Amino acid sequence: MPKLKTHQATTKRFHFSGKGKIMRRKAGQDHFNSRESGEDTKRKRRDTQAHRTEHKAIKTVTPYH
Fold first, then answer.
1. What single DSSP character describes residue 52?
2. pTM for the whole thing?
3. CA spacing 20 to 30 A to 25: which of 3, 49, 51, 54?
């Protein structure tokens, strides 16, 4: 059986934590940040957990995570 190819765009957007959670970066960080409060900016620096409905699709296209 041939090796499966990993979807590279998915590996750049998501990563797996030590306990197996799928983590993603918050959206909307590139520009227009001056109008946001400092708390919003700080919150966007952290990674959040991907929604559970996305887990199956992400695991399918990243077979060797």
1. G
2. 0.76
3. 3
Q: Rounded to whole angstroms, what are the CA distances from 17 to 27, 41, 62?
A: 19, 23, 14
Contact predicate 11/36, CB 8 Å: no
Strands (E), the chain: 14-16, 22-25, 47-49
The structural domains of the chain, with segments of one domain joined by +, span 1-26+37-65
| pLDDT at position 62 over 90 | yes
**Tokens standing for residue 54:** 């996305």
The partner residues of 24 in beta bridges, in order of sequence, read 14, 48
23, 16 contact by CB (below 8 A): yes
- Dihedrals φ, ψ of 30, to 5°? -70, -50
Please state the φ and ψ torsions of residue 24, each to the nearest 5 degrees: -140, 165
Q: Which residues pair with 22 in a beta bridge?
A: 16
